[in-house]
Amino acid sequence: MGSNRASGATRSGIPSSLGQWCCCYSVQNERRSQNSEHSYQQQETGADVIRHQPILTSGEMTNGPTLLFDGKMKKLKSLMKRKPPIQELKVGIFSRSAECEYQWLKTSLGSGPFHKTVLIVRSCPITNNGFQQFLDDVSWCDFGILYHTKNRGRINVTDVRDSLYNVELEHLSEKLDKKNVIVVIDDVTDNSEEEKNRILGAQPKLRRLAQEVFFFSTEEKKEQDK
């Protein structure tokens, strides 16, 4: 992002940067060939996003248990409980993925529906050699979002072989409390309830350490960008 404010929206009110998710396929293809993660390098102009953006269209639930995109955003907002004297929340997005992959999420959190709920959103990269920075980032925020994309190849957040976030998820839940931690699993190809339940069953810490797990498909993000 070029500034500290998210900007731009489609005619439906959804931020236009939602479409930026596609820019990262080339990033991930390059990253898969590397053995280490990108280093912690946060800059004032790119790390934080401040709210007060155009209002998103209100989401509605489907007839079944699966929410539409806007419905998921509405539910996410409802989970962000403010505790006095905190008036607005400092939100950290923690991930091993490139920031451009979750730019759509940062922009959404900086938009109208989260007005008076989210003060600021910060990218909090997780790397193999940056654990102290991770600890500092957790101490900074009031609400933590652990982000993972299937574009990395697998959904291996925790509890399975080569899990990426075992320690990080446990620390987020311990320091922020489970009710202030959610997990976002992005770019899923199978968005069915059966597949979600399979993943949650195979990775039980997702339910035990986070208040909620949100699944987003590439297709639903494409629909929001039209």
Would you mind describing this structure in some detail?
The structure is a single chain. Helix content is 32%, strand content 17%. It is an alpha/beta fold and 226 residues long. It has one domain (16-224): Rossmann fold (3-Layer(aba) Sandwich), CATH 3.40.50. Strands 1-3-2-4-5-6 form a 6-stranded mixed β-sheet, with helices on both faces.
What keyword list fits this structure?
single chain, 226 residues, alpha/beta, Rossmann fold, six-stranded mixed sheet, 9 helices, 6 strands, 32% helix, disordered N terminus
Tell me, what is the CATH class? Alpha Beta
H-E string: HHEHEHEHEHEHHEH
Q: How are the strands ordered across the major sheet?
A: 1-3-2-4-5-6
The value of Rg in angstroms is 16 Å
Q: What's the total number of strands?
A: 6
Which percent range describes the beta-strand content? Answer: 15-25%
Write the CATH fold name: Rossmann fold
What's the helix count?
9
